[in-house]
């Protein structure tokens, strides 16, 4: 027998669970379907982000950063530690605990907001009388019926032909988070967020890390000045980064992987590693969704086709997050989830793609929002730039972390902020001020005139805004 709901959400990741909660807050009877399982086979909502992405990677980054501080930086603070050892199993167990806390938190939020949760894989079974039937394949098969369906099925790691994931020697983000011991040699294909973050984790713990990137430029999506600084710093830290490579054959042995590739000069190279992380992007996840049952339209990449409001080609069916166009970011999915729930309620949900922040949680952290300098040049926009180094920031000196800078880009005539780019300590937190400023169409002068606490890293933001008008006070 089917169960009736106002809204059914397929997928319990950042886009899905947030959409379900917001819809419930707006008075709808809501169901959310998610199939992630924990080690015991129980429900683990939160999607890739919570289970094998954003959250666990940050836990490992934090642990490895503590280890690096203890082995390389404590002495300068007068702290003697003796021999420092890393228990990888304990580090991974802590990561698993952090993940479970987030899983349990989402289940609590469902209960608090009266969202009905179904553990299993959701798929379309058909449509009739203006409503959609969604089958849940779990411990017990269920059929849910609703006139409004939100698809938030996320994405999967893209496989490299000839180097399919086995999560033992050739790893996706999932396997990279479950490595049981520090590999002596680690290879990473792709210098994107996952590649840089996971490479940083294992480099700190003693692995010899080589990152192979097909593109001739490093971090092509970032501002050129930031990318140049990042490449210099990461190389100094010990990451070996090769650009413009062409991957050839990937051969698995019993305990290692051997890669053949051509470097930027076209010279044949061979690299043998204990583990290989393949991080070459992600693909929309519509496996098992059964879109044919209702005539749901997909594009050539397998993504669900939506308009600017996340409406699909079917009335009452919406899609958000990694499974649609736009950046594959958890916070983008959340904003779309909220907006769709509000649109279903007749409100005017809004997502501004121009002010979605990007963050890479390496050390130094990298964050930006808005346009890069190369984008503004390509678009022929007249702009002014201002930059301030953390080397001249008192709080950064006290922290012992003065790498990087804050860079402002503002309209040459109106002074409106067009982009802010940060590489340095706590960039992930500092970028929020820029996002708020850009949402309110603030000028660089506005930030320059606002009082910032002293001593704080945020003063570098103020000084970079002052630098747009060539009047920094501390540099």
Word description of this protein:
The chain has helices spanning 14-25, 47-52, 54-73, 88-112, 173-176, 193-204, 224-237, 330-344, 373-379, 394-399, 427-439, 444-449, 459-468; strands spanning 3-4, 7-10, 30-34, 116-128, 131-138, 142-146, 148-151, 155-157, 170-171, 185-189, 208-212, 240-242, 246-252, 257-262, 268-273, 275-278, 282-284, 317-319, 358-360, 365-370, 383-389, 405-411, 417-424. Strands 1-6-5-4-3-2-7-18 form an 8-stranded mixed β-sheet. It has 3 domains: 3-157 and 283-351, FAD/NAD(P)-binding domain; 170-277, 3-Layer(bba) Sandwich (FAD/NAD(P)-binding domain), CATH 3.50.50.60; 355-468, FAD/NAD-linked reductase, C-terminal dimerisation domain (Enolase-like, domain 1). The protein is of the alpha/beta class and 475 residues long. Helix 1 (14-25) packs parallel to helix 8, helix 3 packs antiparallel against helix 4 and helix 3 runs parallel beside helix 6. The protein is globular, with a radius of gyration of 24 Å.
Q: What's the total helix number?
A: 13
Q: Give the radius of gyration.
A: 24 Å
Q: What is the residue-mean pLDDT, rounded to a whole number? A: 97
The tally of structural domains comes to: 3
Assembly context of the chains: single chain
Domain Pyridine nucleotide-disulphide oxidoreductase dimerisation: 356-465
Catalytic activity: N(6)-[(R)-dihydrolipoyl]-L-lysyl-[protein] + NAD(+) = N(6)-[(R)-lipoyl]-L-lysyl-[protein] + NADH + H(+)
Protein name: Dihydrolipoyl dehydrogenase
Disulfide bonds: 49-54
């Amino acid at each position: 027998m089917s169960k009736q709901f106002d809204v059914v959400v397929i997928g319990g990741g950042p886009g899905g669970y947030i959409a379900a909660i917001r819809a419930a807050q707006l008075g709808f009877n809501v169901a959310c379907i998610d199939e992630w399982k924990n080690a015991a086979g129980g429900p683990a909502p939160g999607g890739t982000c919570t289970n094998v992405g954003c959250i666990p990677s940050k836990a490992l980054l934090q642990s490895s950063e503590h280890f690096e501080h203890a082995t390389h930086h404590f002495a300068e603070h007068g702290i003697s530690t003796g021999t420092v050892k890393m228990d990888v199993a304990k580090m991974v167990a802590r990561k698993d605990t952090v993940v479970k806390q987030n899983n349990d938190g989402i289940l609590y939020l469902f209960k608090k907001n009266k969202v009905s949760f179904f553990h299993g894989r959701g798929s379309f079974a058909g449509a009739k009388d203006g409503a959609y039937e969604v089958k849940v394949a779990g411990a017990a098969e269920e059929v849910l019926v609703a006139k409004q369906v939100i698809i938030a099925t996320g994405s999967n790691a893209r496989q490299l032909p000839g180097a399919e994931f086995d999560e033992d020697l050739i790893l996706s983000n999932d396997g990279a988070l479950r490595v049981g011991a520090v590999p002596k040699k680690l290879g990473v294909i792709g210098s994107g967020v996952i590649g840089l973050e996971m490479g940083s984790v294992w480099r700190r713990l003693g692995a010899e890390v080589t990152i192979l990137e097909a593109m001739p430029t490093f971090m092509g999506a970032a501002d050129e000045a930031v990318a140049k600084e990042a490449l210099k710093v990461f190389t100094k830290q010990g990451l070996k980064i090769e650009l413009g490579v062409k991957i050839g054959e990937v051969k698995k042995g019993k305990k290692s992987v051997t890669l053949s590739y051509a470097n930027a000069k076209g010279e044949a190279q061979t690299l043998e590693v204990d583990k290989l992380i393949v991080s070459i992007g992600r693909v929309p996840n519509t496996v098992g969704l059964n879109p044919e049952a209702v005539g749901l339209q997909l594009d050539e990449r397998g993504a669900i086709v939506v308009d600017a409001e996340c409406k699909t080609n079917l009335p009452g069916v919406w899609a958000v997050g990694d499974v649609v166009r736009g950046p594959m970011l958890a916070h983008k999915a959340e904003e779309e989830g909220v907006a769709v729930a509000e649109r279903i309620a007749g409100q005017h949900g809004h997502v501004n793609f121009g002010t979605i922040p990007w963050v890479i949680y390496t050390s130094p952290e990298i964050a930006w929002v808005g346009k890069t300098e190369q984008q503004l040049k390509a678009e022929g926009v007249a702009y002014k730039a201002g930059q301030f180094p953390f080397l001249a920031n008192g709080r950064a000196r006290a922290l012992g972390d003065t790498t990087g800078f804050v860079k402002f880009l503002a309209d040459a005539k109106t002074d409106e902020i067009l982009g802010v780019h940060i590489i340095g300590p706590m960039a992930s937190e500092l970028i929020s001020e820029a996002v708020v400023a850009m949402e309110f169409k603030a000028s660089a002068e506005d930030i320059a005139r606002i009082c910032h606490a002293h001593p704080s890293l945020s003063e570098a933001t103020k000084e970079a805004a002052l630098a747009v008008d060539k009047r920094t006070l501390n540099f």
